[in-house]
Amino acid sequence: MKEQLFDYINGSAKALTINDILINFLIAVILGMVIYISYRLSHSGAVYSARFNVSLVMLTLITALVMNVIGNNISLSLGMVGALSIVRFRTAIKDPRDTAYVFWAIAVGVCCGVSDYMTAGIGSGVIFFFLLFFGAVQSNEKYLLVVRGTLNRELDIEQIIRTYYKEKAILRVKNTSKNSIEFIYELSAKLIKISESNFEPITEKLHSLDGINNVNIVCQNDEINR
Known about the structure:
Number of strands: 4
Order of helices and strands: HHHHHHEHEEHHE
Largest sheet: 4 strands, antiparallel
Helix content: 55-70%
Structural class: alpha+beta
Number of domains: 2
Number of helices: 9
């Protein structure tokens, strides 16, 4: 029994031929490009990172390479896990969708490395259309209206913002000192559109008051650090 277990642990799959290895990498490249295209289509503007997109293709090929080496050799796989455990990855994932693409690339590499092309192809097709459809969903953007002025304009500022946004602007912060005051209001994208449709922008309306020092509108969302 011990000898059988020892042989099973140290046993390995049949040796891969050059043709098998080339086919594994060819399929990995093709499906890696599918991942590349999916990431490019589902990300736009400042959110898109070309270097990260290329790294997804490379991650697919590297995973396929590792699986070609390991095969079903348990002892070799345990040694590979131990070797890779010393590598510490510190790259921050700034977009939650990036995590899904990383796991997708690893899964495709594993499937290609063990020559399971059908699972890799069908799975990639389903994930491609899923991410293509839902990848365009953007986070709900919120805006902050920051107004700084003299203390004697406190009531005037509140009245203008309350009237302009029809009492829908949410007051988040109100800071006062001996001579100055600061307001921070939270605005939705809908309120920003109201501001754009009005003849007089909120910035001009507030600056028409004496004693207004600064009026700033800041976009706040999950991708602000990109």
